[in-house]
Queue: 4 jobs
Job 1
Amino acid sequence: MVEARGLVKRFGDFVAVDTIDFAIARGESYGLLGPNGAGKTSTMRMIACMSPVSDGRLRVLGLDPATDGATIRSRIGLVPQEDTLDLELTVLDNLMVYGRYFDLPKKLIRQRADALLEFSQLSDRAHDKVEPLSGGMKRRLTIARALVSEPELLILDEPTTGLDPQARHLLWDRLYRLKQQGVTLVITTHYMDEAEQLCDRLAVMDRGRVAAEDTPAALIARYSTREVVELRFGPDGNAAAAVVLDGLVERLEILPDRLLLYSDDGDATLEEVHSRGCRPESSLVRRSTLEDVFLRLTGRSLVE
Amino acid sequence: MTRSLDLGPAPPGPRDAAGRRRPATPLWARSLGYWLYQYKRTWRGSITTSFLYPVLYLSAIGVGLGSLVNHHAHTVDSVKYIDFLAPGLMAATAMQIGGNEAMYPVMGAIKWMKTYFAMLATPLGVVDVLLGHLVWIALRLTTVTAIYLAIMALFGTVHSPFALLAVPAGVLTGMAFAAPIAAFSATQVNDAGFSALYRFGMIPLFLFSGTFFPLTQLAGWLQIVAEATPLYHGVALCRALTLGHLDAGPDLAHAAYLLVLTGVGFALARRSFRRRLVT
């Protein structure tokens, strides 16, 4: 569906996307995970044929965005990072107007709109203006709008950023259903839980480059241990404790607010911490996540 | 309640309601469709205003002030004051509508509502987005100038069948402002530039383009300045048509001036839209 080779995006002297490669198969759900400024949105905008490629090769649906942009855009759906809904029109009219951009007959758009509003749980708001809707409702409407043309590929740029947890879970559920129906999804996010839940495969991006690419489970297996012990020693105690705990585990990360000890047996490690005389203010044994993968690959946290 | 998605069959290629194949709608016309949809909300107020303004202006200045003018000067450029004034106001109104529609709506579609970006995620390209918007402005201008002409007829200020051509002349006048102003609006980060455009552009033009009095009343050098501005040519053209005082040479020159300005404005707008919308 999408193939990038040596893909580059430059803005003047600034290199936003620095020679990346990836391939996305039909029916796959592919994620670009990274902090703000990693080059995710620039990559997405190139795939959506809204931003010209600076260098390298990009094919979307087998076509070249430089020459077949309009054709590609007629077959994909974009959910941009910032909503571009018309706040003064009603929910239904937003779908009608958007469907007309694809030259769909009004009757067909109307049919699809009914199904999509049902799917997005917005049926009872169909004739309300968009302005007063909640953030989660607006996102769901934006997704419904992107689906009105029945795209083969749906591109979602940070679909749940800024939403409350409940709204996020509802949205994930909708996206998961789409995935099950075979819609190819490309998702950018800086939420590791979102990436773990929705993506079959992930590219971990940092400073315009792809640091690693694989399934979430394989990334965790390759770049982290099975478990992580989190210890908090208060604002000034972390560095001192790190000295005492040196050599206890193969890898130890000192973050501003806590220590991370990477271990395959968290409980055993925690016991050893205590036996070395360390008394953390709080401790937690948890499974490794993509956050740990990111930290390992880039030396930084995903969300500051 | 099922929540799975069944959007029905996808028709291959565009078809009409009966399922027959039909030619694809041009891309710019799809962007025009958006502005028509928007207008469905506001057309009542907008049409009312289009009737109200000419009535107010022509009564107050044309009839009221005009009776004084006629009393003292008898005629202005050898016609009654209201006959002189009305086509000037028509052109000035076209300038205002054309300018307004190319300011806040363009900025809104870039910054606030991001309508252009929504369009650009679909098959539409930058030129389609721009062209659709400008065609919409031309349609708006057509209704406003047609209504203006009808009101002028009621006030008895239409003196020639050529007056019908004052509608396209008015549209052209409005577009000669709309296209370059759209180019300007797409370069602006906020709306501060618009009030400068009103204060130092549109309001002086409104007052000094031969709308209210003949340019011969101005000092020699000011006359030359005024004759170089676009509204003067719109006013002169509309006036020649409604009075029936036609003179092919100058009138074609007025039209050519406005056409060139529209064309240059379009080229500039294409460039500034590209710069702003495609990064």
Job 2
Amino acid sequence: MRPEDVLLPTPAGVCCQLGGFHIDPTRPVDKAVITHGHSDHARAGHGAVLATQETLDLMRLRYGEGFAGATQAAHYGETVTLGGITVTFRPAGHVLGSAQIAVEANGLRIVASGDYKNVADPTCAPFELVPCDVFITEATFGLPVFRHGDPDTEIAKLLRSIALFPERAHLVGAYSLGKAQRVIALIRKAGYDKPIYLHGAMEKITRYYESHGIDLGRIDLARGANKAELAGTITLCPPSTLKELWSRRFPDPVTCFASGWMRVRARARQHLVELPLVISDHADWDGLTTTIAATGASEIWVTHGQEDALVHWSRSSGRQARPLDIVGYGDEDEAEVTASGEAP
Amino acid sequence: MNRFAELLDRLVYEPGRNNKLRLMTEYFRVTGDPERGWALAALTGALTFQHAKPGVIRALIAERTDPVLFELSYDYVGDLSETVALMWPAPAQAPGHQRDALTLSSVIEALASLGKSQLPAQLARWLDLLDETGRWALLKLVTGGLRIGVSARLAKTAAAALGEKDPQEIELIWPGLRPPYVELFAWLDGRADKPESEDPAPFRPAMLAHALDDADLGVLDPRDFLAEWKWDGIRVQAVAGTDADGKLLARLYSRTGEDISGAFPDLIDALRLPGVIDGELLIVRDGRVQTFNVLQQRLNRKTVNAKLLAEFPAHLRAYDLLVEGNVDLRELPFAERRGRLEQFIARIDDPRIDLSPVVPFSTWEELAAARRDPDGAGADADAVEGIMLKRRDAPYLPGRPKGLWWKWKRDPLIVDAVLMYAQRGHGKRSSYYSDYTFGVWTKGEDGDMLVPVGKAYFGFTDEELLKIDRFVRRNTIERFGPVREVVHEADQGLVLEVAFEGLQRSTRHKSGLAMRFPRINRLRWDKPPGEADRLETLEHMLQKIESGRTATMPGESHNVIG
């Protein structure tokens, strides 16, 4: 059996014809298996959705009840059989509820990793390596210039800046699902115990994280605070709001942005970021290449991002590799940087 | 090196002019000599290291990384120094004290004495020692061109602020100063007298004009202004002065103060009287001003030979007189300077230098008519780019003061074209598809097809850039390295309204045409590509232009179609 007989790449996502499902389809389908709750992977309008409980909950928070005809929850390690094909969920370490999907038929195992990172994150289950024959990987940061470094160093930079400018507010642009909560958790880990403020658009998801036992300390809405109170404080907000009228309620704000893109100066400058924080929920170059090697897969499919470089690396290290050219992934990351922001 | 790297890193991210000044002034305050002087030299672009060519750095990284991965990374980052700084496989962290010992001064001193063959190994040792920011700053420094959003003028202003001096004072003595500027900082610290300028022919900061909209004219009184043609050449300052021995020294500067004398010996010879002329550099053949394309063939040449001098004779068309003999005229009203200029040019009496004529008018309507149809410029009408308006009572001030000088350009030509290829930009736009090749329709073997007619990379807003970038990414049909071909069918694609200043025949391009100064005027999301313009429209425009002038040289163009 060829890998394409198990999972067929199409422009709308990979499709398992025998099992009758798509993984992270970019168009409405009868049955979708979803890796995680980011909007480019988890779209509304499918007939049925199979995902982790957290991913289903996050989709419900974002799209409302009725985001899919039917839903089925799977927990990490659980195997579901669909038309003779088995589907197993394994943690991807990307955001709360994110999963890799291991698809098996006739002894052939393909792992669709969705988005993933193989570094510690206090807000989600750690990435679990799944040996496989074919590994489907993202390539958001698939260039050797992307080395994210230690996020604690970046948080220390933020806290130094707050000590240096006690009269100014620090606005930290961060993606609403995952990044914002991770940044808060990292700030808490560094010992900062004052209230942290939030943009209203992030409240629901952040409260959901807290309901899962993730301790984020005292969180207040920026909306309720007056300008003077916000001096010397940290506020998390969707990146798009950094440039909006909303930011004018803050005293002389220092514009910060937590993203893997901040590694490249031109990216930070494009968005007039004064304090770039290199913190990413995606694997960096070293993370991608070590993970690919560790899976033992002889064939690599690359979904989105800087696929050219990762395909080249995979081939020159003796693996078969191909880009999948799926249209529509990575828009969420783009939104993170190009500031189209969070959907309400 | 660390502190200097940190300064550069903060300047890169700081958008505000005042904050940039504060960062630099603070650096000059807390940093000693000669370190701060070398930093000022780096910031003002006064340093060049002849052996540290980008090729050396490329070779170093090539020894350490996969070439394909390097090219893809460079293409993405858009900056060689930053790409290498990020990709450099540094050994385990060097001890902090070793890194601290590596000062900017020590790097510059070492670079000055190193031979070409020793440089690569020394650079590699430094790169191993520094962190990412340090590597980036070092590479920026040695390759020249920091490009961190700080002009030489701003750096000098920051230095002036250290001693609460007027930046103009530094500007005037600057040509006589040499890095690391110990005597300058001694004066700024209040420990010594002002250094004397020894340069007999220094540059004076140029005065620039604001663009004029037709609407602005309503509030201006025509009686307050003189008008002259705006010539389509290169704005220059021609300076002649006598040194201590009474010997005359002449120089030609670009409007930013770059000494371009070496490229124009023919013009230098004509500057026989001490004085400072503000004018336009043109090529004049047989008494007629040639197009900008012709002038371009003499620009950016390191050496000039007799053939080039004969084929492209340089000419200075004078606008203004800043200094006459050794008398500074810049405080005088323009009308008075103009009178002195006319006499000065008459005294020089050289065919290579003439006066830019005043355009007579009494109402804005008359002037608008002259701008539309610059017949008054006689045989040189084609070289007119528009009209300059100058207040009669305006002194000559450095920079772009409000309300004194206006430039009123001729209306551009407009065409609706279809986006065909997009390429990622460089620098600030490195991750965006921001360079666009566009085409118009023509008859092909199998019906209508698009033929590329130009390339443009500005004219749109940041928001429009995001939208085009997204369009490109979602409508790519083929990739060629950094270039993407996007869908361009009669019913699918993006129409760009392109504005341009002129049109020429070109044998280098499939369309046979080259546009001058094309830019995106508007995005026509509403327009189906099938309704974009045809090549015949451009041919027609070109015939209209050509009917007004004699033939130009074949193959002239400076808009390369990618």
Job 3
Amino acid sequence: MGAHLPILPVVLPLVGAMLVPIVTLASRRAAWPLAVGAGLLATVAAGAGLVSVALHGTTRYAVGGWPPPWGIEVVLDPLSAFVAVTVAGVSTVGLLAAGPAAERLPRHAPAAFYALALIGLTGFLGMVVSGDLFNVFVFLEIASISSYALVASGGGPALPAAFRYLVLGTVGASFYLLGVGFLYALTGTLNMADLATRVAGQHASPLFVGGVAFVTVGLAIKMGLFPLHGWLPDAYTHAPAPVAVLLAPVGTKAAAYALARTLLYVLRPSDLPVATILAWTGAAAILVGGVLALRQTDARRLLAYSSVSQMGYIALGFGLATPAGLAGAYLHILNHALMKAALFLSVGAAALQGRGPAVHALGLGRGMPVAAACAVVAGLSMVGVPPFGGFFSKWYLLEGTVGAGEPVLAGVILAGSLLALGYMYRFTEEVWLGGSGASPTPAEDAPKGGHAAPGAGGTPGATPSAVAIGLVILAAVTLAAGLGNVALVGVLAPVTGLR
Amino acid sequence: MDLPSPLPGLALAPAALALPLIVLSRRRPAVRETWSVLASVLQTALVLAMLPAVRDGARLVWAPASLAPGVPLALRADALGVFFATVASALWVLTTIYSIGYTRALDERAQTRYFGAFALCLFSTVGLALAENLLTFFLFYELLTVATYPLVIHKQTHAAVLAGRLYLAYTLTGGAALLGAVAWTYALAGRLDFAPGGILGGAAAPPAALWALFVLFALGFGVKAAVVPLHTWLPVAMIAPTPVSALLHAVAVVKAGVFGFLRLVGFVFGPGLLDDLGAATALAALGGATILLGSLAALAQDDLKRLLAFSTVSQLSYILLGAALGTPEAFTGGVLHMATHAVLKITLFFCAGAIYVTAHLERVSQLDGIGRRMPLTMAAFAVAAFMLAGLPPGAAFVSKWRLLVGAAEAGAWIAVGVFLVSTLLNVAYFAPIVLRAFAGGGGPRVAMAEARPAVLVPLLITAAAGVVLGLQPEAGHLLGLARAVTADVMGAP
């Protein structure tokens, strides 16, 4: 078993996805625990992989016993293991919290939902652990197709959103494939480690330039990087609430990981201005996404544009490519996944009570103290208030920009925090207002009858316990990721160089 | 000399433990408030326990973990830190007792949130006072911002929510500037610890860059220190319950900003570098302007708490000016003014709260004859007001005299003038209140009706403390500590 550890995070959700329709025939209620169990096992496997990598270094696994570069290789190094744990863990919490919403779906829909979600998870995890450029494409398509279906399952306005997602997503995947084709033509290999050595002396080749350009643009589309984020806001806004919780935190992250992996560790296009372009595009994304998020009244769309802004931080860190910048970007993959999952989950919790999606109608404070408190934690992390995780990713990014002599980029990072303060404040203000369901108006000068102390309890619209548990886990990990950031940076040190 | 010691960490424990206990005891107010009182007393005791060693020149260090590679999460109790922690903790004890009386008398809502947030504020205050480096400081500084927010919007009226928005917009923007400054300092100096005399002295950076860095820091600290024009949030935040205004908006939060300036001048840039840059002069000009503008604005106020808030704006900048003047006497006076202003201003706020609780009056123009109804409260108000103006032998005279002498030594005659004019302005805005209270009205004689003991006793104690500090400046070792701070920063006298 131990020898097969690297592949287990991919295999377990896939097996789960195949079992879901079967067990649903026997019992409609079995799908949820099965999906959560598969996610949990994948998380445990990825976690064991991370521990093993931290203790013994990078692990390589030849699928089917075929040695690379001919066979398919799975590689767990500190970065892939870290992102795999993030993706698997956050998705598992999303699956856990999806239960109450999935129960309300029509007869066979829950089985389809869980099966597609697990296939998507298989795809995302496969992208992360794959040591082969073509295999990344295969898993990217697996993840994408299940994502399109999941978004479309919302019906109504979700259908055009899903179609747009499908078209742009396919463009992105095709660009990536085209780029990989160029690189294959140049080097004759698809294995990342092999390609990295063979491509070293060929930077002048047009095939290399074209490969880098197509791979970068293709993955930038998939990670929702401004100005290629067109599919993202509608997809996250109109996706059913549990789907948004599953896709928004991890979907863009897997593509971001693939971009970092190919650019920084395989292709290393040092004589092309890719890093500079990424850094400044990221800066533009931070500002544009933040400003657009400020203008939204729909909570889900606000969170979607906030994702555009936060993905900008990650791209900026990749572009800096200094030890501190990379540490910040990688930590932000985890931190943004946690905060975005918590926020979409709290919007979903409100939706279960028939509240939202307008920001002023969320009313989390009323009867949902847990959701309210966790949304506040996620909001503080987004704004970058210590000691939550989001602060530390921004700290390392700041350190990276200042260290690289880029005061403008440092200013953008700080400005992005203030924009996040602007849009997240509207969530938290609702929380503190005790959930009157409306913004304060000058007429309401009398104190409101809200209760601030948690545990006024017993309100009929309380958070379902599965959602509450999910939120508490996410909030707790957000705090732990902040307090324990030195340990995480230590694990990532071999890939960032920050010691 | 640095001594490893768990005491700085232990000093944070009471407030940290009080928070969950307060929330758990939410259904039993008596138990809940017991936790608050116990935490404040324990915190004060633990801070005082560090005082003897620190006064003798030792620094107690507690470094349990790492915040980031190269930056420890560390507390280090030096003279300045213990000075601020002592003032904040000791006044927390009295404010807790006062709060119990105040919230009970007004039957305030959300008392669990109130006392919980209060504990978190004092946790943050002592944490930032004892922080060993800028990043640890920043952590507690931002925590203090967030923990104060629920207290500002406590009443949850439209005006309170708007005040909360303004408060967060100002303080977190300042926080962003501060974070940028901290990151830049780390890039320039390669370290973030507070070292007496500064850490930027050897940094190879052009003066323009150091100026920009100084401006970023000044934006970061200036918001909480209510330096004009960044002071706007402070009068608006007076919508908070009076004990909050008393402890947080006269002592903990605003002094955290001033404390940041003292750390900046003495332990990050160092007085020498600031002087070379010319930034000391800029800081002095900023402080001097704020002193005068704050006092002038206070003259125009009718709302008693807003008047006190503008007075705070003015008085805080005495400390900045003292730090900027660069003479040991002025620096000592500035540090000491942190304590004397705290004791006196908290007395004035306590009095304002007592008047509100008993008579529901908030405006100066309504206070005719209130001195006959509440003689003890108004006597304390009068004593504290005139002491704060700097009239001898009050507590503030001790600090202001040193500021004046220090300014004269530095040859800063403009600063001397500012101090003198401001004293006149102080008298000009406080005297009408006292006159109104005791001589105004002349209406029907009313029965004496003081506030309940839990409200009255704390304000009498702080007023008495002001008198004692004026007559015996060495009492409570505050003057000794202030001298030790100056010796740290400028070398032994």
Job 4
Amino acid sequence: MSLNRFPVNRVLISLLVLIPCVAAVYFNNATEESQLLRVRNEAQKIVDSPKLRSLSAERCIAIASRLFKAEGSVRATAMLYYIGAAPIVGADLTIASIPSGSDVLTIETADLLLIAELLFHTNRLGPAEQLIAVVLDRQERRVAALRLAIEIRMKLGSDAEVMRHTEEWVQFEPNNPKPFRVQAAVHRNHGRWDNFVVAAEKAVELTPPTDWILQVELVDGYTHLGRIDDARRELNRIQEARPDLIKLAPVMHARLLLQEGDDESAEKIIDRCLITYPDDTEALMVKGKLRVAQGDYDLAIALFDKVQKIDPADEQAYYQLGQAHARVGNKDQGRKYLVQHRRLLDAKIELYGLEQKAAREPQNAEVRRELAAAYSDIGLPQLAEFWTRAARATGGAK
Amino acid sequence: MFRKIRNTLWLISTPLKACCLTVGSFALVLSQCGCNSETVDVNRSETVDIVQPSELIRDVPQDAQLPFGLPVVREMRSIQDDDWFEDQAAQLGIKFSYRDGSDAGCYMLLESVGGGVAVLDYDADGWVDLFFTGGGSLTKGDESILIEGRSAGLFRNHAATSMADVTVLAGLNTQDTYTHGVSVADINADGFQDVVVAGFGAIQVWINTGDGAFVEQSEFLELQSDAWSVSPAAADMDGDGFVDLYVLTYADWQPDPKRVCINDKQLHDICGPTMFPGSRDLVFLNNGQQFEDVSATAGIVEENRGLGVVAADLDGNGFIDLTVVNDVQENQLYFNSGVLPFNEDGVLSGVAYSNSGEREGSMGLDLGDFDGDGGPDLWYTNYTHQDNSLLRNIEGAGFVHSAELLGLAGDSRSWVGFGTGFGDFNGDGWPDLYVINGHVAYDRLDSPYFQPPQLFLNQRGERYRQISEKGGPYFDHDRSGRGSAILDWNNDGGLDLAVVHQNEPVALLTNRMASPVWLSIDLVGTVVERSAVGARVEVATSGRSQTQWKISGGGYASHKDGRLLFALPDDSPVTVSVTWLGGKKEVHEGLLPGSYKLIERADAYVVK
């Protein structure tokens, strides 16, 4: 072949065509990457800066939607960011399609975490739970993943998993008080004061001594356990440094005084609390029990009656009412309240079993619906609504 | 609590159950979460998190460490002058241990109940003797578990110089029943105390022949049951003058080697009682010749998980009432109008639930007058995370929970309480309290298997204060305690304690704080049954009155010294009022302190 016959022009023409194409692909990819980076940045701002939430969400979905025509993980990532941010500004969700499971697995862990956080903050717990499960399987960004998993699963009522995550978190950060605070919160919610105190003591140990509120909580835990000496020692310390805080915890203070045998001072504190907060059921209950101890059943009945009216699903109010009526000889009335107490007690024990099941089965919408119905039955609409939302979030909207 | 902070600093929109975590700060929110606080049924069910046939468990869990494998350190410190008690069991020749069969590694609920002790004067020599139930053994097969009994132990008190093991001599060395609790009564009204023992699948009735021997006569007396009975109480329930029996049964349970339960440490451990339905207790009426099982018509609940029982006349109407405390179920109070069936009124009377209206895991039980008002108060021990319960008697109107306001909250929440009782150990005229603790599960996270015994001082009926450190060397060490009984084994006027442990030697704690001035009353029924259970004794001194009741049951699976001991402020003569079962009241004036008085019904008493 002679050089004369070499089609130089054609090659040049081809090169002129190809180079821009390659460059276009190259720059396009680079552009996609940089655009995805912008999506991420805006999404991060949504989480970090509540004031800029709407603006960042607008930007996030605008940039993400430009990437819908991309392929592979970029497209899947962009779609999920869009889905995550769109509800914040009421954008049309139908223009994005949910990536397949295999596509989701191609998304980077950092993106999955951020998207899960967006979903969580927009109350879509089911999808958030699904994404965090993928992240937890990867063993990357472990502490961040555990923290988010705790938040999501706490909202889903999966306390057993929350506790497991906190235990793992402690392995990574043994000197971080936060996992212990989470544990304390879970125990407190369940009224497991013994466990609460163990966790809270650990949190206090790892927290700067200026966190007086945490210390007040610990004193509260001590009083629930009747650990009078510990409660008094800590309370005196707090009283010296932050007397204002003790005033903000009147029922705790009164409970301690009652346990120490100082009924008079306790009653004064409770009375002051009830002037400011006449519907404080805890204060009303403490005062009612004190009246029972003093043999003043009629006043106790009035106090328990008020608690029952404020919180008609509080089985303890019915129990105390039933007992106080029985002590003054109103047996029929007492029996009526005690029947109601038993009904609520049994219902709540059954609910506890269901909640355990819900915790073990985070994707089980049916059990969450059962919980919603049961809470509704016993007159706890807030919890019914909570479990309805949880059922919806786990994909079982009805 | 913390209302202002709750309302201002941390606004929470999520409801109750999951409300207590803020997103950014992880700060705890001091809101009052209305649901699930103190969900009671978890207390014993927490023992078990998973139960499955073992073949379904993919990873066979590791076994919880059995107590046999644990090092036991028992270096007793020497006794100090101000110690209240000294363990003299070994010194006196009492070498006996209750065996629960746990060494076989079966992890069965049966192992957890434990045994008891009975204080009796079987040879009528004026010195109380000790009877211990033996427990039993388990042998694990592939498809079944073989349960065998172990001999009881009878120790004869040689005038407070020694205690001789006379088990074989007395014919008590049989091994046919795995045993738990024990009671004492004169079943055949012949003047000699007989022994009733509860066990798995059988009740033993040991009739005292009066010559130092016992003969088992449950079949002859038709006092039989194949239920899992744990503790008897003997009293005249139908007012006919013959002693009847109430027998606690624990659960409808059978051994199953394939049942595997996992504890909070993910270890294979004992399955808790909530895994099994309860069972109906047993009521046997004595017609003077034989017993009749009237459980189905006696008005008792269909099923419960009874572990503690006291028979006494609670409402003062002249008839025996019964208090029954249960494991993770409502407690019962059976009122007796003189004609069965009983009227069960535990809920309305205030004994069924805790002070917060929750079911408790209750074990030991006793009756006494802690505040000196003359009314019978109740005290019972509970599972971990629950305070023990003190119920103040409101005359004619039930009971009020009083532990929290009397300084008894908190001190026992870490422990599983079993043997317990009121007793004026320091002789100041006010009944103190003791609690023998020990876990039922072998290796849990939240509470250890071996636990400390506790002693609480009664401060003039107004408060209790824990003074376990003054109890003596025995109180320094953790054990797995079960049954216990108050007694005065050396007749010195001080209340001693006999304690049964799981697989460890029993203890006999001699009181070192005995009041120099005391009076002890031993009641003998003539028209009423001979043990006179149900009587009320009031001793009036110059300052105040002290009241005690003759009961059956109490302690935990045990039978205490039937004599009622009163510490007195001085040696002036005192007036003793006895209200016998049936309501007859006798007043004995001018009784001199310092000795045991035998008071027989019909205005006669004899100084022994």
